[in-house]
Amino acid sequence: MPESRNSRLTRPETLTAIGIFVVAAGFLFPTYDLRAISALLPAAMLIGLLVLSVFLLLADQRKASAGEDAAPMTKAPKRVIGAFLMIVSYALACDFVGFYISTAVTIPLVAWTFGYRSPVGLLIATVIVVGTIWAIFDFGMSQDFPTGRLWGR
Amino acid sequence: MYSDLLHALPDVFAWTNFAAVVIGVIAGIVVGAMPGLSATMAISVLVPFTFGLEPLVALGLMAGIYNGAMYGGAIPAVLLRIPGTPAAVATTFDGYPMAQKGEGGFALQVAVVSSSIGGIASAFALMLLAPPLSKVTLLFGPSEVFWVAVFGLASIIFLLGGNPVKGLISACFGVFVSVIGSDPIYGNDRFTFGQLEMLDGINIVILLVGLYALPPVIDLLETPLKTDGVNSSKLGTQSLWKALPRMKSYWKTWLRGSLLGIWIGILPGAGGSMAAFMSYNEARRTSKHPETWGEGEPEGVAAAEVANNADTASALIPALTLGIPGTAVAAVMLGGLLVHGLQPGPMLFRDNPDVVFGFMWQFLFGAILLVLLGGSLATNSFARLLNLPRPLLGSVIIVLMLIGVYSIHGRMFDVYLMLGFGAIGWVMDRLKFPLPPVVLGLILGGFAEENLRLALRIGRGDPMVLFQNWTSLILVALTVAVVVGPTLKKRFIDSRKKA
């Protein structure tokens, strides 16, 4: 099957190999400031990653030149990006707005966005989850949760 | 040696410890029954919640989840032809045709009894084999311990199958993460970039939750589950006790599957799927009616389920004695042990006999409880779990992940770090980079470095100190065999095919 991408360099494994190479090379610089014995293992691993990423890149490019098409990483990129963004937004919201408000909004929002459209079910699930968390962690175990940097707490 | 085993028994019967196993088994069945969730993911999410618990309560939960999830995977495998866990793939071959014939209830009963028998056999293997092996490893010095760590990493990279370059990249990444933080001997910072939160290194739980819990959540949200549905309310279930006499003739399959599962569990990197496939094939090969297999033969369900549960506790034999886990779940469980200050290896048996032997008993009771809890409830109640909406489940797991990681040190930095590892884990998962070497790299990296540096100090910097005794040389030879073996085997098979 012919390569369907415009450039062979945009194949997922090739991009990953380049990413590993760049990051490993970047991390290699701080090892020069370490004592030799302290740098031994991390430097060995980083050099290993550099070499292995080259192998990965060459193997993937060889597949590309043989006409092997690379499978896409996801069939639903918008849903995956959306899921990641929602998870990151939830973490940021917990940090800046506070845990309970963010959780009470996130549970129904994520479930609704990704296809569960029963308002009663969402309400019941949110109340049960948030209530159980409060009862077990806050009330039972005195666990503190983020209260929100925006409110200066 | 075995007297410690009996001494540990009363602690296991303390009500909190016993309740933990019961809750773990139920939770495990629930998790296993949900396609997309696995024991590895469940234990990863659970570990941070066990910080404040007694070790045996935490370990009881883990043992219960592991046992329960292995059986739970059979529920969607039988009812929907979707394996709940990877180890349940072979269960679909005959389980689903049975469900289509209206015998889904009996298929699940065969699955639960077989799973229980496999789990019991596996727990006995752990009890019998781990203590003597730990005595041998007590004789190891720093250079031998270093080579054990190298052997462990090599075996999980090369025996796991797949692409060795990707396995090596995973392992290098894991070992690199293990060195982040203060140097254990000189105390200087390594790759902390001025972040005080990273001085103590990367907590293994953060990595576990990121790698093993985030990718399945993304999967849950990415693809809505579509089934060609068997109605779970019409299973044709009868009492388990009435169904048992029909299973009497499976004893040979149970015995063979148990032995295969135990053996494969001990081998690093093999895992429950391989055990189930091998047991299924062996049972079909020796069957008097092989033509009925694949069309709803209950013995096929028995063969697959007994083997995938027989692999559970036995995977912990190398994990507890040498620190080398046999499966991904065992790797995550090692992380759970470390959280409670229990360093896997020979010292674990000497310093914490009550905990380690109590853990073994918990595996045994977890396997027995499978029949009692799964048998009466599974056929109808657990089958209804398949109707739970996946997006809702995903959103609840996201919240649990955040709570678990935040509660380790009470700081959001760890949550952001977990999300970073989660993104890396998702990419690795999609590009088929194996995840267990990352976890093992993190566990064994620091361990290997410490012992390597100790050995070099003893040898006054001479690297030949690493090759100066027979045990080290044997371990080096084993490592070379593990690295070179699969390549030689492949070449041998290729040359035979050409010939």
UniProtKB/TrEMBL annotation, chain A:
Identify the keywords attached in UniProt to this record, alphabetized. Membrane, Transmembrane, Transmembrane helix
Against InterPro entries, the record matches this protein to: DUF1468
**Transmembrane residues, as ranges?**
12-30, 36-59, 80-101, 121-141
One of the Pfam families matching this protein, by short name: TctB
Segments forming domain DUF1468: 18-143
The entry's protein name is: Tripartite tricarboxylate transporter TctB family protein
Source species of the chain: Salipiger thiooxidans
Which lineage? Answer: Bacteria, Pseudomonadati, Pseudomonadota, Alphaproteobacteria, Rhodobacterales
From TrEMBL, chain B:
Q: Which InterPro entries match?
A: DUF112_TM
User: Keyword 4Fe-4S: yes or no?
Assistant: no
Domain DUF112 as annotated: residue spans: 19-440
- Alphabetical keyword list: Membrane, Transmembrane, Transmembrane helix
Q: Where do the TM regions start and end? A: 12-33, 45-66, 106-129, 136-161, 167-186, 260-280, 315-339, 359-379, 391-409, 470-488
Extract the PANTHER family matched here: TRICARBOXYLIC TRANSPORT PROTEIN
UniProt name for this protein: Putative tricarboxylic transport membrane protein
Q: Which organism is it from?
A: Salipiger thiooxidans
